[in-house]
Amino acid sequence: MALVAKELKYNLGEVTYFLGSETVISAAGEGMPEWREKLFATQNLTASSAARFFELPPERVCELGSHVEI
User: What is the pTM (predicted TM-score) of this model?
Assistant: First the structure.
């Protein structure tokens, strides 16, 4: 089966960008020491978003997120 490239026509003003994000949560239990988990979670919160990094227009972004326990 061969793929055939077709010309795509689109208007950047009508494009919607779908992004994923994770919120890191420190959870009690085995693994890293609690202070390291909290430090990592804080660093994750202060990191720049993908939308800001790629300079995407905020009104064209749909962001889906999840919580991740470490």
Answer: 0.65
